[in-house]
């Protein structure tokens, strides 16, 4: 099934900042992070309703190997990605972005 795929600027910024941080830790680690995020996004594309709703109609998918969660909304054939947050962040931060 084809979806309209939308990454908010904030979600893209989350990925970009995390990539830079991981690359600073070890060359190539940022690329590994991007690969894991992409694999998670591909899983969402295959089965968008598989992941649990965590706030209203917003869902959360966990990224393998890295402690990150992807928050998105699936409605009317549209997948909107709102954020990719480190799992240790205060939940008020991602809830604030979703409302």
The named CATH superfamily: RelE-like
Average pLDDT:
92
**N-to-C terminal Cα separation, in Å?**
28 Å
How many beta-strand runs?
A: 5
| Overall structural domain count | 1
CATH class categorisation: Alpha Beta
Rg on CA atoms, Å: 13 Å
Q: Helix segment count?
A: 3
Identify the overall geometry.
Answer: globular
Strand content: 25-35%
CATH overall fold name: YaeB-like fold
| Name given to the CATH architecture | 2-Layer Sandwich
Summed up:
The chain has 99 residues and is α+β, with helices and mostly antiparallel strands. The protein has helices at 9-25, 29-46, 91-98; strands at residues 4-7, 53-55, 58-62, 68-75, 78-86.
Description:
With 99 residues, the chain is of the alpha+beta class. It has one domain: RelE-like (YaeB-like fold), CATH 3.30.2310. Helix content is 43%, strand content 29%. It contains 3 helices and 5 strands, in the order E-H-H-E-E-E-E-H. It has a 5-stranded mixed sheet. Helix 1 packs antiparallel against helix 2. The longest helix has 18 residues. The model has no long low-confidence stretch (mean pLDDT 92).
């Amino acid at each position: 099934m084809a979806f309209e795929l939308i990454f908010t600027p904030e979600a893209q910024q989350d990925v970009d900042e995390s990539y830079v941080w991981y690359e600073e830790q070890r060359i190539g680690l940022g690329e590994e992070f991007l690969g894991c995020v992409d694999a998670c996004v591909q899983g969402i594309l295959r089965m968008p309703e598989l992941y649990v709703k965590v706030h209203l109609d917003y869902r959360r998918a966990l990224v393998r190997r890295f402690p990150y969660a992807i928050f998105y909304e699936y409605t009317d054939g549209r997948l909107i990605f709102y954020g990719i947050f480190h799992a240790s962040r205060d939940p008020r931060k991602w809830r604030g972005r979703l409302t």
